[in-house]
What does this fold into?
Amino acid sequence: MDNPLKPLVFIWRARKPSKMNDMPALCNTFWLRKGFAALTFFGTIITATKEEAERLNTSVNSIKVHEMIHLRQAQSLHDSWLLFYVRYLWYYLRGLPQNRRMRRAAYMTNPFELEAYRHMHDSHYLEQCRNGANEWRLYAKMKPRQRLAEYQNPTIK
It folds into this structure.
C-alpha cells in the first residue's frame, strides 16, 4: 500500500518553481483520483502506476508536457507553488456550479487546466514559456460559463 504521507515530504522539500528544469514522477495511488493520469504536487508528478512514473521520468510525452506547463504557471505566479495552488483552488471552486452542465466542468474550465490541455501536445510550448506560462490569465478574465464555452469550442489563439 502507498504511504499517504509521502507526498507531504515534497511540500517540505519543495524548491521554488524557477529553480526547477524538470519534475520527478512517483507513484502514489492514495493521492491520485480515479480518472486522472497524473498531478503536479509541489514540483513532483504523482502517477497511479510505477510504470507510468518510470515512463515520465525517462521520456517526454503529452502528460509530462501538461504537468510541466503547471510548473511554468507556478513560475508566473511570483515563483510560488503556494500561490499557484491557492489560485487553482479559487478557480476550481468558482467553477463548481458548471458541474451541473458538464461532468468535471470545474476541473476542465480551470484557467490553468485550459492552458495545459490546449498545449499538452506541443513540446515546443515549454520553450516558448521558459520564464512562466501566462495564457491562463486570458482564461481567468472570463466568467466560468465563458470558460466552459471556451473548453467546448476553443477560440483563443
